[in-house]
Design a protein that fits this description.
CATH superfamily of the largest domain: Ribonuclease Z/Hydroxyacylglutathione hydrolase-like
Number of helices: 11
Structural class: alpha+beta
Largest sheet: 7 strands, mixed
Helix content: 25-40%
Radius of gyration: 23 Å
Shape: globular
CATH topology of the largest domain: Metallo-beta-lactamase, Chain A
Distance between the termini: 40 Å
Number of strands: 21
Number of domains: 3
CATH class of the largest domain: Alpha Beta
Oligomer: single chain
Length: about 450
Amino acid sequence: MAPDHPPPAPEPRLAATLAILRDGARGLEVLLTVRPVELRFMGGAVVFPGGAVDDADPDERSTALREAAEEVDFPDVGTERLIPAGRWVTPLGAPIRFDTHFFIVEAPADWIPKPNPREVADCYWSTAAGALTQLAEGAIAMAPPTVEMLQRLDEFSSVADAAEGFATSEGIGSSRILSMRLSPFVHVVLAPNPGIMTGPGTNTYIFGSGPTYVIDPAVDDEEYLDTVVALAGEVDEILITHRHSDHVGGAAALSARTSARVRAFGDDPAGEAPVVPIADGARFISGAAALVALHTPGHSSDHLCFYVDGAASLFAGDNVLGEGTAVIAPPDGNMGDYMDSLERMRDLHVDRIYPGHFRPLDGGSAVIERYIWHRLERERKILAALSGGPRDIASIVAEAYEDTPTHLHPLAEHSALAHLEKLTSENKVRSVDDLWEAADVG
């Protein structure tokens, strides 16, 4: 969670996506594409062909066909062949937002997809069940609307069944609570609290094979808690990464339902729930799997990560996000502590990171190394902004965060202040009458 009163978000851009279907030897199959890993937004993720509406596009159907032609050489079969399959609006927290209309279409019998390397890294046919299994095994990453679309497609046995089903239903975007299995030991339920600080919503994780552990029950919402309880079965304990309200809002209600204790670092209540404290290094066992609690302050003073012993995985809370970077907001947020925590997390040599918001990330150690580099680079830019003399926080952010959308600059001021406090402790800057300036050296 971030500070109160977040800035307004930009309006989402209109977009369209096309799920290309065929009746294959394995049953109903859908064409999946892989985004290039170097892309800033959802790099490496598995998606359907699609993109933003162009000014020259007559409508969303035309956009879907044009994007599919550009990405995988899909022929112009006519917009009348496309069947609406729902709509998904990117939540407020994403760095790029879209209002995406989804369509399905049957592929011509003799068509062979040809991925355009300038648009997609690869493409392949898969059953919906096969793709969801890849997701559960940690082999691929997807955004929530892709997962929901595959879950809907998994209900159908043929193209004809899918066409009839989507023609008579609300399609994707109508499900209020989305859940998915991410590994044999990890299930995630997306809390219905989307926003500029929470992205699609807070990730509530269910870990283990029974009894289970529930990590970060986010909201006191009946349908959401029903889903968590149904998937979790017998709950041993409720684990909290940190006490920001979007991670503890459902802790008391879930504890009342399951009789499970709420555990967090320190003994302050988690929301309205009493807490049994967790010590750094505490272990939590579920079947053949185990979690190790790590005190990793910085985003908040009470922040914990949970390392999956023997599986090179980490529940990172808000220290690492699936998109973008975390806000470090003093006084409880501390940039020096955060940098130390990132180094501790990096030295675990994890592969998969389960963040508090947005999608899981693979190549975890490299991700954390980029986080460290990003913070050091931001610090360099802040020092450069002070080279011309004293400045206030807003003008520092305007220069040092020029790569950040301006509507996010009020949030960036919190992290900039955390950087400045760290630099002050290192005798590199000082504050005079609400202005900041470089400190004399030597």
